[in-house]
Amino acid sequence: MSSSPLRQRWLRPRACLVLVGALLATACSGPDAPVVPAGPEAVLDALVQERALPAMARLEGTTAALDDAAHALCEGPDEARLEAARVAWGDAYLAWCAAAPYLFGPADDIAMKRRLGTWPVNEIVLDRVVASDEFAQMRINDDLRGFAAAEYLLFVPEGARAATADRRCVHLADVTGQIAELSADVHRRWTDHYGPAMAAPGTDELTIASADHAMALVFAEGMNLTERMLWQRIGVPSGFFRGDAEPDKLEAVHAGLSRDALAATLESMQMLIAGRDDKPGLAASVAEVDAARAEALVERGERVIRALAPNGDEANEPLADTLRREPARLQSLYKQVEALQDQLSSNAELMELPILTVQDGD
Questions:
Q1: Distance between CA atoms of residues 256 and 90, nearest Å
Q2: What confidence tier does 355 reach under pLDDT thresholds 50, 70, 90?
Q3: What is the per-residue DSSP string for 19-70?
Q4: For residues 226 and 221, what is the distance between their CA atoms, to the nearest angstrom?
Q5: What percent of the chain has pLDDT over 70?
Q6: pLDDT at 10
Q7: How far is CA 237 from CA 66, 250, 278, in A?
Q8: What is the distance between the alpha carbons of residues 203 and 137, in angstroms, rounded to a whole number?
Q9: Could you give the domains of the chain?
Q10: How is 154-174 classified by DSSP, letter by letter?
Q11: Structure pTM?
């Protein structure tokens, strides 16, 4: 696979954080750039209009392109179409990672994170169920579907013929079709009902009763997201819990996009916290109560991203290779994300928000 725009950007020195693709740039900030206080109404309106809806639109568009590319590969297997499908997978997966702070509400209603974001894929079983139709009934299992299964089916085989052999195309088309369908469904729900209810809470008491309720949902998903990152995306691959790094358990390791995937989520989270172009983020609401804590929250988000940024030769190698060479590489990132989670929790308490954290499918 050729280098993606995200992969390439790590090769250039950066004075500021840069969000790529359909994401928008966010300015660097710090102690000399105080957070301007804003009420929850302004924060929620910006969250919906400037962040959640564009993120969901990008997710729908890229997953539809992935589904089209998978079908094109299956209709005419050749190396160019395989490469196009791999690029489309990378675009869609990075859009999924960037949409992570907004995968609540409609996404929770359909258990979207579990159905599309279960990692790792069960490789041994997947190879068996796509070899023939003998075990076709098992293809519905979550650990044989979603982005992980599509990555395995597209990136592991050597060449287009191997990628489309036996019943691989049947399952690939089914998996990418589900990814596109659920992404379009959640975007529609955000656009038609949930987004307007978030931006103007209290107009529909059956959905979101108040601004505090809406803000609580956003903070809760931030804490859920950091917990998932700590356990699944950073903790296990880094060996944080047992001392032995397991690079093969990184997400998107076959595509070589593990670092970019983490960056897409962390930068999207930082945009949610800090805001951009005079559109307030969560920190602006915190600043109404405590300006110093609001600035500390923004600074923590920046420190998280700096902890992931490649050092020296890391920019020229996949994150998995970095971990094999330097097993403790992600441990500082773990600590920074953990500190961010703690700050989200303490600021929610400061604002007296009615927080209830749940994980997808609970």
A1: 9
A2: confident
A3: --TTS-------TTSPPPP--HHHHHHHIIIIIIHHHHHHHHHHHHHHHHHH
A4: 8
A5: 89
A6: 33
A7: 27, 6, 37
A8: 45
A9: 33-350 (1.20.1420.20)
A10: HHSSSSHHHHTSTTHHHHHHH
A11: 0.90
